[in-house]
Amino acid sequence: xxxxxxxxxxxxxxxxxxxxxxxxxxxxxxxxxxxxxxxxxxxxxxxxxxxxxxxxxxxxxxxxxxxxxxxxxxxxxxxxxxxxxxxxxxxxxxxxxxxxxxxxxxxxxxxxxxxxxxxxxxxxxxxxxxxxxxxxxxxxxxxxxxxxxxxxxxxxxxxxxxxxxxxxxxxxxxxxxx
Amino acid sequence: xxxxxxxxxxxxxxxxxxxxxxxxxxxxxxxxxxxxxxxxxxxxxxxxxxxxxxxxxxxxxxxxxxxxxxxxxxxxxxxxxxxxxxxxxxxxxxxxxxxxxxxxxxxxxxxxxxxxxxxxxxxxxxxxxxxxxxxxxxxxxxxxxxxxxxxxxxxxxxxxxxxxxxx
Lengths: 178, 167
What we know:
- Chain A is of the alpha+beta class.
- Chain A has a single domain (about 25-175), classed as Peptide Deformylase (Alpha-Beta Complex), CATH 3.90.45.
- Chain A is built from 2 helices and 6 strands.
- Chain A has helices at about 35-50, 145-155; strands at about 60, 70-75, 90-110, 110-130, 135-140, 170-175.
- Chain B folds into 2 domains: about 5-75, Alpha-Beta Plaits (2-Layer Sandwich); about 85-160, Alpha-Beta Plaits.
- Helix content of chain B is about 30%, strand content about 45%.
């Protein structure tokens, strides 16, 4: 079954990924108009860039240099995923419920040399709008997809996982490159 | 550019990190990687910096008073990971002589490179947590060897993969 939020927009182009330090990664993204054709193009570009990046399960607009509240996620097939909604793009997403907090070590394409221990909710409800249709959706998810959504929503708010690490000795040199 | 390796150890007090880093900033030292913690109440700081000469950095730190410092010039090393799979070794049990030596020797013999380690003694309980890069495919055998060593020491050991999710 295709999830109702799944991305089925146009083919996008692959954009370069911005790495820290970069002002755009620490700037609160602007809310977007999901019906704006430029936003739909950006959605397509995020999906295209995510798909060509090895191991990439999510990409937010600030990571391609655009300070906007829009991101793509696709955790399909990931061993830690439980609930999955395929590849999708959300605009102006907000977490409205969060529970089952759990620490885990995560990394980011925009911070390529480090990982850090970050507590994330294992179950969340997110409200957002879909690019193109502008349809308002509520997504309930868990496990790895929940972690990915929280990571991308943080990007849209100008936050990196570094802003949430559990302590002074909770950052690590990244050893596994995908 | 040459690098300096600096250690500072002394009684902990409020403001000691600020004092050390301010003294070094005053002679143009750019701190790169550093770690600071309290070990049984002693302030300990180890850092790498670039900029000043050994003499300049030593003079700046000599104003700090009640601390032991060392300043040496070191050749820059690559900080790229050597490869291998990241694992965490946890050991806990009753304190006795030689736990760290025995456990780390087993890891080294398996080709594992320890990249981070801390130990704490609280009451009778001794705790060791180490991060190690292990050669691919070596973890199961190492886990068995660690279990043997732990049984001899009378402590508990676990070896688990330090999984990270790249988002």
